[in-house]
Design goal:
The protein is of the alpha/beta class. It has 21 helices and 20 strands. The strands form four sheets. A six-stranded parallel β-sheet has the order 3-2-4-5-7-6, sandwiched between helices. A six-stranded parallel β-sheet has the order 11-10-9-12-13-14, sandwiched between helices. α9 links the parallel β9 and β10. The longest helix has 15 residues.
Length: 550
């Protein structure tokens, strides 16, 4: 007796076997066999999106929250090229993701058929592994390997092309069981060296968050840092690495950090870096901490040995599972008296992250963040944003809770916030997903409001509208003062647009009107959108266009 299944059925069965419970997609005729198999697979929630870039961002965000690959299906050609932005984000953000692309029939390959692209070649620079499945019998092998590659070492994206005719082949195939993640071993001698260096350092400081970091690692490291009095800072857009209420939290690095924190980084004689790659944004273009860091001892802990000593020379380089390493730190007997530096650094961060009223601005975003902080506790919300100066108010003034409470691309991709909030609303119904989007940012994936409404997402959307591509305008004013070119936007009525999608909406133009509007929004269910009309003159929390020109 045979057990014949087509390739689509085998693929879905093996995704279930590996632990997949949700797929984001935009349908295509090239993977109809997969959609047909999903019709009879209640274990997987199928989320139909409105554009492949939005679907890929949702998968990337989902992988961030779960630690297992976020899964996305798109069709060939235009579908795959649209989705490529999510692959790039997953790679630079070190987050697990699987992108499946319906491909042309095997018999049509290399004729430049309809929407044909060589996907393994196209995605090779963007993914940990890019491949094509030619034989339906080998689908279980490919799925198990892809799952393992996406989650091992430095997590990241895997791209798999699926020839349409291969998915229709009926074959016998042996499913593979779920794989247990293999972690790198930790050398006890290396761990002893770390402890010795920490005990003798005069001004140690930790930079954490990134590859392999999760809520368990955050909790364990928070315990360690508190008991040792070690100041902890988050790498760029890793502000939920530990709860910000921790007395060891010193703030975050990236664009526009606290000058007092910058001074602490420069003065540190030992840097304990765990999970972070020390990328360009975290290190201010490799200048705040230089690759050779003279006068500073660098302990670099990362799950992928290939990342160690790649850019930064490490005095102690440890390839290890992040939680395993942090748990060992937390289990060490702490000093009798914690250092005082952590408390001092935390006080400096409290001062830096407290918004003061700003004169001359009709809608003060700092006070908007303050109003949100009064109404939402850090662990009650997941703040999701794309790229743009609008996000700097929340990066500076919002107090983040335990992971996941921040979904923001370190790759700096615009259009991420709204689809990420959809993924967060579906995955974490215990929290309020908050999408932050500038006017230019929102219109790149704002159509995913339709997805949010269709699937009953509970989320708050703030569209910050200053009529410009604000970040580029800021750089333009710095390099070519008062010579505007290509950065001004003429926008729709975002509140009316939100209502058209089925959202509850209001427009806010004055600071005193924000808190009451937010109260009304929070009293609603479903998708609520506040259109915040701001003045481009107030381009960041700390400066203005006029000051930049001057």
């Amino acid at each position: 007796m045979t057990n014949l299944r087509n390739g689509g059925r085998i693929l879905v069965d093996n995704l279930v076997a590996q632990g997949c419970d949700r797929i984001f997609h935009v349908p295509g005729e090239s993977f109809l066999a997969v959609l047909d198999a999903l019709h009879d697979t209640p274990q997987i929630d199928l989320v139909t999106c409105r554009q492949e870039g939005g679907a890929a961002f949702m998968a990337c965000a989902d992988g961030t929250m779960t630690g297992k690959p976020g899964v996305c299906f798109v069709t060939r050609g235009p579908g795959a090229t649209n989705a490529s932005i999510g692959v790039h984000v997953a790679l630079q953000d070190s987050q697990p993701m699987l992108l499946f692309i319906g491909d042309v029939d095997r018999s049509m390959r290399d004729r430049e058929g309809f929407q044909e692209v060589d996907f393994p070649a196209m995605f090779a620079p963007l993914a940990k592994w890019a491949t094509r499945i030619e034989d339906a019998r080998r689908i279980p092998e490919y799925i198990a390997r892809a799952w393992n590659v996406a989650t091992s070492g430095r997590p990241g994206p895997v791209v798999i092309a699926l020839p349409e005719d291969m998915l229709l082949d009926e074959v016998e195939a042996a499913d593979r069981p779920r794989l247990e993640r293999h972690s790198a071993g930790l050398d006890s001698a290396d761990f002893t060296d770390v402890l010795d260096l920490l005990r003798t350092a005069e001004r140690p400081l930790a930079i954490v968050g990134g590859a392999d970091w999760d809520i368990a690692a955050g909790a364990a490291f928070d315990d360690f840092a508190r008991s040792w009095g070690l100041p902890v800072t988050g790498a760029f857009r890793r502000q939920d690495a530990i709860p910000n209420v921790s007395p060891a939290w010193a703030g975050n690095l990236g664009y526009g950090p606290n000058p007092r924190l910058v001074e602490r980084i420069k003065a540190a004689d030992l840097l304990l870096v765990i999970g972070a790659r020390l990328g360009e944004a975290t290190t201010d273009g490799y200048t705040l901490i230089t690759p050779d860091h003279p006068g500073q001892t660098l302990i670099h802990v990362h799950p992928d040995a290939g990342e160690l000593n790649r850019v930064y020379r490490a005095d102690v380089a440890i390839a290890a599972d992040v939680f395993e390493f942090v748990a060992m730190l937390a289990g060490v007997e702490p000093p009798a008296t914690p250092r005082g530096e952590a408390a001092d650094a935390h006080a400096e961060w409290i001062e830096w992250s407290t918004p003061r009223p700003r004169e001359g601005v009709a809608l003060d975003l700092g006070q908007c963040v303050a109003a949100m902080r009064e109404r939402l506790k850090p662990d009650e919300a997941i703040i999701c944003n794309g790229a743009g100066n609008f996000s700097s108010w929340w990066h500076r003034y919002w107090h983040y809770g335990a992971q996941p409470s921040q979904l923001a691309p370190t790759a700096g991709a615009m259009g991420y916030g709204t689809p990420a909030a959809v993924a967060a609303a579906l995955r974490r119904k215990d929290k309020l997903a908050v999408a932050l989007a500038g006017d230019g940012d929102f219109l790149m994936n704002g159509q995913e409001l339709a997805t949010a409404v269709q699937y009953g997402a509970d989320m708050l959307v703030l569209v910050i509208d200053n009529g410009a591509y604000g970040t580029i305008r800021m750089h333009q004013e710095r390099e070519f003062p008062a010579r505007l070119s290509g950065t001004t936007l003429h926008n729709p009525d975002f509140a009316a647009l939100g209502r058209a999608y089925g959202c509850w909406t209001e427009t806010v133009e004055r600071t005193e009107d924000f808190a009451p509007a937010l109260d009304r929004a929070l009293a609603q269910n479903g998708v609520r959108l506040l259109h915040l009309k701001t003045d481009v003159e107030f381009i960041t929390p700390g400066t203005t266009i006029s000051a930049i020109r001057g």
